[in-house]
Amino acid sequence: MTSQITTINPATEETIQSYDLMTDAQATQAIEACHQAFSRWKTRSLDDRAAVIRAIGKELRAQKEEFAKLMTQEVGKLIGDSRKEVELCAAICDFTAEAGPKELAEEERDIPGGKGVVSYAPTGVIYGIQPWNFPCYQAVRYAIANLMAGNGVLLKHAPNCTGSGLFLRTVFEAAGLPEDLFTVLVIDHDQSDKVIENRLVRGVTLTGSDGAGRTVAAKAAENLKKTVLELGSNDAYMVLEDADLDTAVEACVQGRLYNNGQTCVNAKRFIVTAPHYDAFVERYAERMRGVELGDPTDEATKLGPMARDDLRDKLASQVNESVEKGARAIVGGTVPDRKGAYYPATVLVDVKPGQPAYDDELFGPVASIIRAEDDADAIRIANDSRYGLGGGIFSKDEARARKIAAEQFDTGMISINGYTVAIPNMPFGGVKDSGYGREHGGFGMKEFVNAKSIYML
Fold it and tell me: How far apart are CA 332 and CA 204, in angstroms?
């Protein structure tokens, strides 16, 4: 077993920093320290917790530039996207501080012969296993909600953004969060199982692949621990027969390339009805062909590197397999001869079931365009997926699009005539192999609480 984690800049291939892995004993001590901090934090009032969380938002904004540069260095995010990520995390803090005391307040209900009280009590230490694509946001998304609820928080971040996890801990504590309440575990996968088994850990949340979700959920279930899983998707964006093509093309390019194409809710499958298909393909391909790869620290760059070489190689393999099975790459589709984990903006057509471009999640700047005969066929294809995280509908009839979204589209989040990643006051999460549980919108604060019934007789 290696005793260190070394982070690598995916744009330059240069080493950033090395970190010593914790021993099993150190990890256990860290969990115990987090539990002790939780034991004190849970007695703080909701308003007190909210004040600290509001301060964390301010501290994130104060350290935005330094944090943004670190994220871009570690995972290749465009510098502008890194800054926006920190702003989103600060907005999550603002929303949580404002809504938390109301969401978690005790409720009184009439019961026979007396009064019932519903109390939302924190449950303990919550363990989060998070990926690299949003080094700040993925951690903040579950941590802030659980801190507001009164829980302690453990973070096992992806190895390639270890520095970002440790930076976030510094930000939290600089804002006044008690020491050890948010604990970063620098550990490997084998040690992670032992964390789940630890008696002081009361819940587990993971963002990652559906394969990782099955593994973590099984280990948690073996130890009777609740889980919240967000497991990615191959989100479908439908261009219906009455869509505005200009709006659709613009949003679909943005939705595919955002965060260098490495977002669980990126637009990935573009299902275009027959009246628009040829024009959409031509205009979409033209836009994607004009996207040049570049240095993610350059403000003018539109597409940076992927986060690691192995991730780029997996994407290239999925594209190659799709082409071997009948798809055509009309833009991109070839690994460039240059330093760094780069992959070009790519457009695949003739995408059919049985190809990775249709069946799986392509986690990078590759668009799959699928022809539908009509609106009903588009809805059928959109739902023909084992995933169900996000999606989109383009239609001039917003009322009809809203009805389709609510009644026929089997996914967790749907954008109509645009592309949206995450908004603090709206629930975030999916169905089917995209996982279960909800974050944001007040929902995340109650995933790991004990809803107590108190009978006043």
Answer: 39
Q: Which of 267, 243, 230 is CA-nearest to residue 390?
A: 267
CB 130 within 8 A of CB 158: yes
The distance in angstroms from the start CA to the end CA of the chain is 59
Tens digit of pLDDT for each residue in 410-424?
999 999 999 999 999
User: Are 133 and 222 part of one and the same domain?
Assistant: yes
The answer to whether residues 93 and 432 touch, using CB atoms and an 8 Å cutoff, is no
CB 155 within 8 A of CB 34: no
pLDDT in tens, 278-304: 999 999 999 999 999 999 999 999 999
Indicate if 191 and 338 belong to the same structural domain: no
User: Which class for 239: exposed (0-12), middle (13-18), buried (19 or more C-beta within 10 A)?
Assistant: buried
CB atoms within 10 A of CB 451: 10
Instruction: Indicate the pLDDT class of residue 187, thresholds 50, 70 and 90.
Output: very high
DSSP 161: G
How does DSSP assign 60-102, residue by residue? Answer: HHHTHHHHHHHHHHHH---HHHHHHHHHHHHHHHHHHHHHHHH
Does 15 have pLDDT greater than 80? yes
Helix, coil or strand: residue 156: strand
> How far apart are the C-alpha atoms of 426 and 284, rounded to whole Å?
30
Q: Are residues 136 and 240 in the same domain?
A: no
As annotated, the active-site residues are 230, 264
d(C-alpha 180, C-alpha 37), whole Å:
6
Same domain for 80 and 49, yes or no, is: yes
Q: Return the percentage of the chain with pLDDT > 70, whole number.
A: 100
| Per-residue pLDDT, 2 | 63
Tokens of 49: 């917790």
Is 244:396 a contact under the CB 8 Å cutoff?
A: yes
Cα–Cα distance measured from residue 412 to residue 337, given in angstroms and rounded to the nearest whole number:
39
User: Is 428 contained in some domain?
Assistant: no
Q: What would the two tokens of residue 82 be?
A: 């890194």
Contact 59, 174 (CB under 8 A): yes
The sign of the CA dihedral 258, 259, 264, 269 is positive
191: containing domain? 4-231+433-456
